[in-house]
Amino acid sequence: MSSLEIAELTNKRHDAILRDxxxxxxxxxxxxxxxxxxxxxxxxxKRPCYNLTKKGCLILASGYDALLREKIINRWEELESKxxxxxxxxxxxxxxxxxxAAEQAxxxxxxxxxxxxxxxKVLFADAVSTSKRSCLVAExxxxxxxxxxxIGQNRLFAWMRQNEYLCSKGQYYNQPTQRAQEMGLFEIKQxxxxxxxxxxxxxxxxxxxxxxxxxxxxxxxxxxx
Length: 225
Prior knowledge:
There is one protein chain. This protein is α+β, with helices and mostly antiparallel strands. It has nine helices and five strands. The chain has a three-stranded antiparallel sheet. Helix 5 (94-129) crosses helix 9 (210-223). The mean pLDDT is 81.
């Protein structure tokens, strides 16, 4: 179900539905249930929206009141019932059959375009979620650039400090804040270096976890829409 349809069902503004979905993604819910796509408005302009799985709809509905949840659940039951019956009503006349065939062809073409547009993001999430490999902030900047976000290592570090994902002062400079640690976005790698004078230097490196990579890519993509 699309976020546009949810807005219509619940009689809420579409931008409010987008905000609610982005808040959920910011909390770390599975992005597979909220696929970012686009639609063309009445003015012919591209606008952001999301395609939600049934699970995604239920996660979103859990934050709404009982009447709105009921409307969303009723719509899912209607969609599932229609799917079991073949997905479309039986036409009564030849002209209805032609019109229905044209509508079905257009719907399939639009869905295919949405799938192709969403594919890079879905593939990225799949690849990272199945890997436990952490990466440097510089590597994350390259991943963001590959997804259309114009940002480099230094700007990404500055953004993370400004948004309180990394500490901005003192001995913990550029290390994860307590909140970011609890969210599982980063891990700390420490390397011990034996210096020629016999002293020991401990080098600390901040790395972004697989969960963190998905979180930051989705956050930047959502903010960039």
